[in-house]
Specification:
With 520 residues, the protein is an alpha/beta fold. It contains 17 helices and 15 strands. The strands form 2 sheets. Strands 6, 7, 8, 9, 10, 11, 12, 13, 14 and 15 form a 10-stranded mixed sheet that branches. Strand 13, helix 17 (474-483) and strand 14 (487-488) form a beta-alpha-beta unit. Residues 262-510 form the EAL domain. InterPro entries: Cyclic-di-GMP_PDE-like, EAL_dom, EAL_sf, GGDEF_dom, Nucleotide_cyclase, Rev_trsase/Diguanyl_cyclase, TAT_signal. This is Diguanylate cyclase (GGDEF)-like protein.
């Protein structure tokens, strides 16, 4: 397109100059012809007029030449700016999507050509990068903060030797790297992520930044077409997100199978929610004397074809999309509509970290409580220690709002997140549930003994309730009591069962002696 405009400019300029250059001679010839036969005085007047016309024409010629030169300069500048817009992303400074894909296609075309001719081909790596929770960052801190994160991301990538970075759209970037050595690539990508975290977390404006996920595929070993190579890197990127984000993953075929299975499971889970094919089971929580004082609601899914599917398989799938919001609402509504907590102190309902980050939890809980005419004080919301300890200020604010609504907040799986006891003073929680890995090792592991005892002492000072999870034997129960736990949960007191089965629906029962619900 640029060469075409230049050709038109040159032709138009030449033709105009030739036309204008002929005007003085034409004027003189015309004046001479018209002056023939006229008196001498008139001939002199005619000659003067012709001379004046020639001078004016020469002036016009000079002006036209200048204008044509300026027009050509402006046209070239416009073409330069157009090329800039087409090739460089204006916001971030990375290559535009079009320009990056052209570079990717060119490299792959050279590989295919070499393979076709039987010659050794070059190798390179494609890395896809997403900013973790970028939408939340924009919504919470403003788009100007999100823009600054993207610009910093590109600036840090530009510091890496032999990296070519392009923006594919939104917060999705791609990088071409000459190396295909997995160890070197992992080290380089890790240093890049660490550098980015350090730069952004030290700025007050971008402290809400939570990290990046990187999916990696290599050519020609993984693919030799742009479409296939991008797909492979995207599968690796999805694997990062499925495993908690902030990861670096290299593509392999097993990832593809898992992603296909996960997508099918997501479709089936969506249908199960709509068709009410899920169920809620309840596991009792007992006091020091073995009397049922509460219960934990646990979702169960019996797939019509695949049979029982464990929660640790389908909940992570739900957490990758808005399915987690629908699943959470379904469970909470089912619990509210039941009479599970009639006579009990509370029913505990698990809340996913993904729900807290998405910002829809509080409105959903308010709506369901209003529609079912229930009180928040009837329930405890269980949030894992890892989620609480890694929570952003916005997530902690949400937890405090839930507590102000009347919900009790339980810190679940305590001990798995390596948290500091000093943090317990500031966390908005009411209940500490000690992870079963500590409860079941109290007899043989001195560290578990010290840990559980310390939790019990701190809980007394802060008026927290301590629940020992995973109690499966009388010995577990006795040791947990000695260590300072006040409530207990585990197969010794009852497996998770549907409402109404066995004795769960009879509050206040001493079910510690009920053999029908003990662990086998």
């Amino acid at each position: 397109m640029k060469r075409h405009h230049q050709l038109l400019t040159k032709i138009s300029r030449r033709q105009l100059l030739e036309f204008v250059a002929l005007l003085p001679a034409t004027a003189l010839l015309g004046a001479s012809w018209l002056a023939e036969g006229l008196p001498a005085q008139d001939q002199r007047l005619m000659g003067g007029a012709a001379l004046l016309l020639m001078l004016l024409t020469l002036a016009a010629l000079a002006s036209a030449t200048k204008l044509m030169g300026e027009a050509g300069t402006r046209l070239e500048e416009s073409e330069r700016q157009l090329d800039q817009l087409l090739n460089i992303d204006e916001l971030s400074g990375a290559l535009s999507r079009r320009s990056f894909l052209e570079e990717l296609d060119g490299r792959l075309e050279r590989i295919r050509a070499a393979q076709f001719s039987g010659k050794p081909s070059s190798e390179f790596t494609l890395m896809l990068l997403d900013v973790d929770h970028f939408k939340h960052l924009n919504d919470s801190f403003g788009h100007s903060v999100g823009d600054e994160v993207l610009r910093t991301l590109v600036a840090c990538a530009a510091e890496q030797p032999n990296w070519i970075i392009g923006r594919l759209g939104g917060d999705e970037f791609a990088m071409l790297v000459g190396s295909t050595d997995h160890r070197a690539l992992y080290d380089d990508a890790s240093r890049y992520a660490e550098r980015l975290m350090k730069v952004l977390r030290t700025s007050d404006r971008t402290q809400g930044y939570q990290g990046i996920s990187i999916g990696i595929a290599t050519a020609p070993s993984d693919a030799t077409s742009a479409r296939e190579l991008l797909h492979c890197a995207d599968v690796a990127l999805y694997d990062c997100k499925r495993n908690g984000r902030g990861k670096i993953a290299f593509y392999n075929q097993e990832m593809q199978r898992k992603q296909t299975d996960a997508r099918q499971m997501a479709r089936d889970l969506h249908a199960a929610i709509l068709l009410n094919e899920l169920d809620v089971y309840y596991q009792p929580i007992v006091d020091f004397g073995g009397r049922t004082v509460s219960a934990e609601a646990l979702v169960r899914w019996n797939h019509p074809v695949g049979g029982a599917i464990a929660p640790d398989r389908f909940i992570p799938v739900a957490e990758q999309s808005e399915l987690i919001d629908r699943l959470g609402e379904w469970v909470f509504r089912r619990v509210c509509e039941s009479d599970a907590n009639r006579g009990f102190g509370t029913i505990s309902v698990n809340v996913s970290g993904a729900q807290l980050k998405r910002g829809k939890l509080v409105p959903m809980l308010r709506k369901v409580l209003r529609e079912t005419r229930r009180s928040a004080s009837d329930f405890a919301l269980e949030i894992t220690e890892t989620v609480i300890m890694n929570a952003t200020p916005e997530v902690l604010s949400t937890v405090r709002e839930l507590r102000e609504m009347g919900f009790l907040i339980a810190l679940d799986d305590f001990g798995t997140g390596n948290s500091s006891f000093s943090l317990l003073r500031t966390l908005p929680v009411d209940i500490i549930k000690i992870d079963k890995s500590y409860t079941q090792q109290l007899k043989t592991d001195s560290i578990s003994q010290v840990f559980v005892t310390a939790v019990g002492e701190v809980a007394k000072l802060l008026s927290y309730v301590v629940v020992a999870e995973g109690v499966e034997t009388q010995e577990h129960a006795m040791l947990a009591k000695l260590a300072g736990a006040g409530r207990f949960q585990g197969y010794l007191y009852g497996k998770p069962i549907p409402l109404g089965r066995e004795r769960l629906g009879r509050p206040g029962n001493d079910i510690a002696q009920a053999p029908s619900v003990r662990a086998g």
